[in-house]
């Protein structure tokens, strides 16, 4: 249970990452990914990388520069531009549904304009899921200059789209529905220089 704790990725650039284990019975037609990050990086970095043997950017949450997030599904991406410069924790939730190809993006508890992405696509189930590195091959192929340095917390992945109420609940760290990856019952393995520490502030 990582409640009120964070992963601290200490080095920049870094070859460290955290490997997550999810119980996925079948491919994903829908998903919602939420996480909280705190960093002073201005170069590109990867927050969440979900790769299959067929597609290394099956699900990827990537920040190429300040004020911009990229959500990849099946190798294609959409861009969400956000206000920059608070140097504070940033909470993001990204959801996607295959039937409509609608990608939703919530930044610090508020929804951004929805975008279209990969309608009819299915996300593969046999995945390597990493925090802090971007996979260019299944479980590897890292570029250290895309690595994350800073603090990560409150990582969740659901196999459904969340309602607006639940999106706001995720931002406020309230009770959430059962997830395939849940911060309060995370199965993970640290590779390299990543330390679990208490959260310093809300």
TrEMBL record:
<dbReference type="InterPro" id="IPR051005">
    <property type="entry name" value="Pentraxin_domain"/>
</dbReference>
<protein>
    <recommendedName>
        <fullName>Pentraxin family member</fullName>
    </recommendedName>
</protein>
<feature type="domain" description="Pentraxin (PTX)">
    <location>
        <begin position="3"/>
        <end position="202"/>
    </location>
</feature>
<comment type="similarity">
    <text>Belongs to the pentraxin family.</text>
</comment>
<feature type="disulfide bond">
    <location>
        <begin position="34"/>
        <end position="93"/>
    </location>
</feature>
<dbReference type="GO" id="GO:0045087">
    <property type="term" value="P:innate immune response"/>
</dbReference>
<dbReference type="InterPro" id="IPR013320">
    <property type="entry name" value="ConA-like_dom_sf"/>
</dbReference>
<dbReference type="GO" id="GO:0006953">
    <property type="term" value="P:acute-phase response"/>
</dbReference>
<comment type="subunit">
    <text>Homopentamer. Pentaxin (or pentraxin) have a discoid arrangement of 5 non-covalently bound subunits.</text>
</comment>
<dbReference type="GO" id="GO:0005615">
    <property type="term" value="C:extracellular space"/>
</dbReference>
<keyword id="KW-0479">Metal-binding</keyword>
<keyword id="KW-1015">Disulfide bond</keyword>
<keyword id="KW-0011">Acute phase</keyword>
<keyword id="KW-0106">Calcium</keyword>
<dbReference type="InterPro" id="IPR001759">
    <property type="entry name" value="PTX_dom"/>
</dbReference>
<dbReference type="GO" id="GO:0046872">
    <property type="term" value="F:metal ion binding"/>
</dbReference>
<dbReference type="GO" id="GO:0001849">
    <property type="term" value="F:complement component C1q complex binding"/>
</dbReference>
<keyword id="KW-0964">Secreted</keyword>
<keyword id="KW-0732">Signal</keyword>
<dbReference type="InterPro" id="IPR030476">
    <property type="entry name" value="Pentaxin_CS"/>
</dbReference>
<dbReference type="Pfam" id="PF00354">
    <property type="entry name" value="Pentaxin"/>
</dbReference>
């Amino acid at each position: 249970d990582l409640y009120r704790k964070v992963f601290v990725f200490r080095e920049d650039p870094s070859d460290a990452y955290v490997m997550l284990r999810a119980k996925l019975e079948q491919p994903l037609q829908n998903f919602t990914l939420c996480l909280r990050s705190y960093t002073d990086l201005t170069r590109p970095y990867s927050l969440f990388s979900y790769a299959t043997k067929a597609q290394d950017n099956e699900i990827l949450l990537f920040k190429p520069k300040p004020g911009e997030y990229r959500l990849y599904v099946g190798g294609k991406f959409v861009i969400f531009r956000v206000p920059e410069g608070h140097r504070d924790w940033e909470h993001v939730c990204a959801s996607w549904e295959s039937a409509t190809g609608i990608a939703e993006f919530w930044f610090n508890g508020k929804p951004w304009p929805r975008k279209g992405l990969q309608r009819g696509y299915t996300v593969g189930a046999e995945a390597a899921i990493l925090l802090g590195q971007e996979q260019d091959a299944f479980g590897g192929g890292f570029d250290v200059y895309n690595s994350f340095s800073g603090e990560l917390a409150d990582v969740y992945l659901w196999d459904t789209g969340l309602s607006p109420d639940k999106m706001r609940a995720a931002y406020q760290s309230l009770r959430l529905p059962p997830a395939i990856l849940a911060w309060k019952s995370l199965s993970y393995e640290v590779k390299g220089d990543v330390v679990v520490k208490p959260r310093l502030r809300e």
